[in-house]
Write a structure and sequence with these properties.
Layout: E1 2-11, H1 15-23, E2 36-46, E3 51-55, H2 62-67, E4 77-82, E5 85-86, H3 92-101, E6 103-106, H4 118-122, H5 124-128, H6 133-146, H7 162-174, E7 180-184, H8 192-209, E8 212-217, H9 220-226, E9 229-234, E10 237-242, H10 244-249, H11 254-261
Parallel strand pairs: 3-8, 3-9, 6-7, 7-8
Antiparallel strand pairs: 1-2, 1-4, 4-5, 9-10
Helix pairs in contact: 6-7
The protein binds adenosine-5'-diphosphate (ADP) and magnesium ion.
Magnesium ion binds next to helix 2.
Length: about 260
């Protein structure tokens, strides 16, 4: 569904010079004079219908990586292909179209509009696209039921618990009915019990709707529970990519092994 080919993202004054040096084997720490290397030489394929987890500590480059998968950020070098469409070096119009029809994103802090009702929040993306009110309403109603928020349509986000707010965030991403969902620490702000419930429902929903999901987390248990495959990031690099079983039984290095020791 998504193919990332040798992507780099360097923030700073001379990103291309930093990439050149990194590609020639320089250490990340040695290019700080040119910029911050957030993602270094990442290549992977996300398969249709899988939950692909990106796991790593804070600052390892996860958010930067996922933002390159829908064109919110352009790689400094390398290319990204989404469902057959090249999204690197293309116009903003093409990117808007990709975000409208191919990839939706769910954020950690919900990013709901506080003065709009649940249903209007869920329908917001459709409104931006100029879809008529009646159709918007019908589609939003369907996804609201899907995420278990029936009866809450006319409430404001502030009247909802954190878990319910994140359901609204999920509804808003589902309403566009894209094949791919990108989720950046989507459950990290939730209480453990609600969080587990959301994880279970996400797996269920993914099976039923056949979505492809890229899910970011810094939590190994969450990664193990959700992931069909897990990419482990450290300091901007993917240091291991495999099934949860691969990662538990055969950690690629001490860093992954250390991570794995903490699994419940
Ligand atoms: P994660 O999501 O794993 O916590 P991020 O992708 O947010 O990691 O950040 C990776 C690195 O890139 C960090 O060192 C961060 O400070 C840096 N970074 C992220 N975004 C920017 C930006 N817009 N400008 C400069 N540096 C950034
Ligand atoms: Mg992040």
């Amino acid at each position: 569904a998504i193919r990332a080919d040798r992507i780099y993202k360097v923030f700073g004054r001379r990103p291309r010079e930093a990439v050149k040096r990194l590609a020639n084997g320089a250490e990340r720490s040695s290019v700080t004079g040119f910029g911050t290397a957030a993602v270094i030489d990442a290549s992977f394929d996300v398969k249709v219908g899988e939950i692909f987890v990106v796991m790593g500590l804070s600052g390892s480059g996860k958010s930067t990586l996922i933002r390159m998968l829908n064109g919110l950020l352009e790689p400094t070098s390398g290319s990204v292909n989404v469902l057959g469409t090249e999204i690197t070096g293309v116009s903003e119009a093409v990117l808007r179209d990709v975000r409208r029809t191919k990839v939706s994103m769910v954020f950690q802090h919900f990013a709901l509009l506080p003065h709009r009702t649940v249903i209007d929040n869920a329908a917001y993306g459709l409104e931006v696209q100029g879809i008529p009110a009646a159709e918007r309403h019908e589609r939003a109603q369907r996804v609201i039921e899907r995420v278990g928020l029936s009866g809450w349509e006319d409430k404001l986000p502030g009247q909802l618990s954190g878990g319910m707010q994140q359901r609204v965030g999920l509804a808003r991403a589902l309403v566009a009915d894209t094949d791919i969902l990108l989720m950046d620490e989507a459950f990290s702000a939730l209480d453990p019990l609600i969080r587990r419930e959301m994880q279970e429902q996400l797996v269920e929903l993914q099976r039923e709707l056949g979505k492809t999901i890229v899910f970011i987390t810094h939590d190994l248990n969450e990664a193990m529970f959700l992931g069909d495959r897990i990419a482990v990031m450290r300091d901007g690099r993917i240091v291991q990519l495999g099934t949860p079983d691969d990662i538990l039984t055969d950690p690629a290095n001490d860093y992954v092994a250390q991570f794995v020791q903490d699994v419940d």
